[in-house]
Design a protein that fits this description.
alpha+beta; five-stranded mixed β-sheet; 5 strands
Length: 145
């Protein structure tokens, strides 16, 4: 799991517009006036979905990687009455959403199988923050101890 987290963190850190990458410890839920992390931050959680013995003393671990992207959207103007420039400015964070997808989708290396996005959805929040939540799946093989 540590390798999955570190690899994901390192990949997302390569995106120039991302200002902060960390493990999700509730930073976007537990705060007084503003989150303790800057906008354009990414929070990561790695969950084990299941494991399966595959023989020869090996087990495959199936994991999901939850990415929460905290977008820098100060004022959202997206109605059909808003000026085009305001709509473009309000939707600029979609560029970062696509960059995160492009960086992670189909990634593979010697330890981790191919990353595959299962979903991406904007969270509905009372505090007005714009948070896009991704779920990627991957797997890796470990020797059974």
């Amino acid at each position: 799991m540590k390798t999955t987290f570190l690899t994901t963190r390192n990949l997302i850190s390569q995106i120039p517009s991302i200002t902060w990458v960390d493990k999700d410890k509730g930073q976007l839920e537990n705060y007084d006036s503003m989150p303790p992390i800057p906008p354009n931050s990414v929070l990561i959680t790695v969950n084990i979905n299941r494991t399966q013995e595959i023989g020869d003393g090996r087990k495959i671990w199936f994991v999901s990687i939850i990415i929460r992207f905290y977008a820098d959207v100060v004022k959202s103007e997206t109605s059909n009455k808003a000026p085009d420039e305001a709509v473009e400015r309000s939707l600029k964070y979609y560029d970062d959403v696509e960059a995160i997808y492009d960086k992670l989708q189909d990634y593979t290396d010697n330890e981790l199988d191919t990353f595959n996005m299962q979903s991406a959805a904007e969270e509905s929040r009372r505090d007005g923050l714009t948070i896009m939540r991704f779920v990627f799946n991957t797997s890796f093989v470990r020797l059974i101890a």
